[in-house]
Amino acid sequence: MHGFLRSGLLPIAAIACMANAGIVSTHGALKVANAKLTNAAGTPIQLAGMSLYWPLWGGEKFFNSGSVSSTVKDWGASIVRVPMAVGNGSGSLYTGNTGPIKAAVDAAIANDVYVIIDWHVEQDAPQKDKAIAFFADMAKTYGKQPHVMFEIWNEPAKASWSDVRSYAIDLVAEIRKYSSNVIIVGSPDWSKAVDQASANPVPGDNIAYTFHFYACTHGATYRTKVSNASSKIAIMFTEWGTTEASGGGSVCISETDAWLQLAKDKGISWANWSLSDKAESSAALTGGASTNGGWNDGNLTASGKYVKGKIGEVAKTLAAMPTTPVTPVDPVVPVLPKVDTVAVPGKIEAEKASTLSTDIKIETTTDAGGGSALGYTTNGSAEYTIKSTLTGNVVIRSRVATAENGTMNFKLNNNLIASLSVENTGGWQTWQTKETKARIDNGGTAKLQIQWTGAVNLNWVEIVSEQSGVSDREASSGFKVASQGREWLVDLPKGAHELVVSDLQGRVLSRESVVGKVQARIQASANARLVRLESWDGTRSTRLVPGI
Question: How much is the average pLDDT of 209-222?
């Protein structure tokens, strides 16, 4: 009955050294590739750690930095799972209180380990509207942190895989507005139908699937199912116990050994249920254990002692794992290319700054035409050298994307010339063109500074005369406008994505997406004098004859 002692506990000091190396700093943002969870360099990786208990019934007292820090520094945990209470067989438990969740997630990030944000529902009513709002908040808050993963439905009960998959598609779409991090999907039969998931996976990148087992209840038949499915989809044991499925009964060491050997053989990461002092066999802590960590073996249950040793074994393997250097977790000053002076009127590519503040990062953009943009701009600044042939009133057009709200201030030789407020565009890669008016009193060479308050990604800036409201580039390459009575017919070139109509003062009268179209129609108006086309290779404009 004391077989857990043979796991061979690592010295606490040795495990602490492993944790101090910084698992996320070492391995970067996780990915899913070839049915495996991998580090940022594409090398398969196995993580091990603890799942917190429901943030109810006393479980929330361990949602703090002390408890998380002890599992990392003393046990060698490389992953922590944080459940949000949603519902069980007795009904909805959701209160909307995300305070304990964010406290635990922040603690995991501070300890530089991976963390799973779990929508913890054990029923066939996942409360999708609430889930979408919850994960939108979590993804906006943590979506750019390489530490974070999202588990979107803990344990569907008797729901069909078709229903679970449909729910997952909607949740993935919402999270992907803000984050490309790994999303973990459950399956029917309390997340044991990975065979059904592997036969018809959820579309998209960086999607893994959870399997839950309790060693005294779920045996070899389930291990065969996991083994077979693991060749087709990435699997994680985001919740498992050493006991019966009820959380009670004996600690079944031989069956647990078999499950964790399978996890090792298949590279399956895991989180044990649970880091709590609940009076049940699956809890890791005894009653009266400190709620702020610092536990000794006398504070651990039989399950806790066993699991601590197994976490240490995975930590030792991780410490010896060869790694390929990955992008550092903390933003660094980017190496900027040599940049020439930019002519104005004209377009300034945001990443081609002569100076960037240290927190700003250059990122690949999915905006039309591809290329790079600036991200992590909160309270940052960028500077460009321009040579202007314009004086007087101008229009500054900015290609922006944000999942929040922010403001950009434009300065010329440190003198404020314009401000642009940007509201949520729908995501960090959902791009819109915004305009603001400014004035340039003197032509010639000058320093253009952009300063941010709040996070707004920036692809490019274009400065043009207010009279045109557009660049001087005239219609060409398939862009033609012809009068047809009370409207104009616009022929669109390949790559067109936005059509803007304005008056001679640059005021926008209409704006429409023309992605995939070959023609568009503009209603005649006495004020409509200019039409501007955005396409992958830049901006085109032409003047219109006043409407009748």
Answer: 98
Distances (CA, A) of 272 to 53, 242, 453, 504, 527: 10, 8, 41, 66, 67
**Cα(77)–Cα(113) distance, rounded to whole angstroms?**
8
Q: What angle do CA 177, 182, 186 make, to 5 degrees?
A: 105
Per-residue confidence (pLDDT) for residue 526, from 0 to 100: 67
Q: What is the mean pLDDT of residues 28-43?
A: 93
In this structure, which amino acid lies at residue 125? Answer: A
Percent of the chain exceeding pLDDT 90 equals 58
Q: Are strands 457-465 and 392-402 parallel, antiparallel or unpaired?
A: antiparallel
DSSP annotation of 234: -
Among all chains, which residue has been given the structure tokens 């340039």?
440
Catalytic positions: 155, 239
Could you give the CA distance from residue 541 to residue 85 in angstroms, rounded to a whole number? 54
Tokens 């991200």 correspond to: 375
Rounded to two decimals, the pTM is: 0.61
**How many C-beta atoms surround the C-beta of residue 1 within 10 A?**
7
Residue-wise pLDDT tens digits, 37-75: 999 888 999 999 999 999 999 899 999 999 999 999 999
Q: Which of 27, 54, 53 is nearest to 41 (CA)?
A: 27
Q: CA–CA separation, 178 vs 404, rounded Å? A: 10
**Distance in angstroms (rounded) separating the CA atoms of residues 542 and 414:** 34
The DSSP symbol for 382 reads E
- DSSP per-residue letters across 266-278: HT--EEEEEES--
Measured CA to CA, the distance from residue 354 to residue 373 in angstroms comes to: 14
Q: Please, are residues 111 and 77 in contact by the beta-carbon 8 Å criterion?
A: no
Phi, psi of 501 (to 5 degrees): -110, 135
Domains of the chain by range and CATH? 3-320 (3.20.20.80), 342-465 (2.60.120.260), 480-543 (2.60.40)
* Residues in contact with 499: Cβ distance below 8 Å, sequence separation at least 6, in sequence order: 490, 492, 511, 512, 514, 520, 522, 531, 532, 533, 534
Distance (Å, rounded) from C-alpha 470 to C-alpha 532?
7
- Residues 132-156, mean pLDDT to the nearest whole number: 94
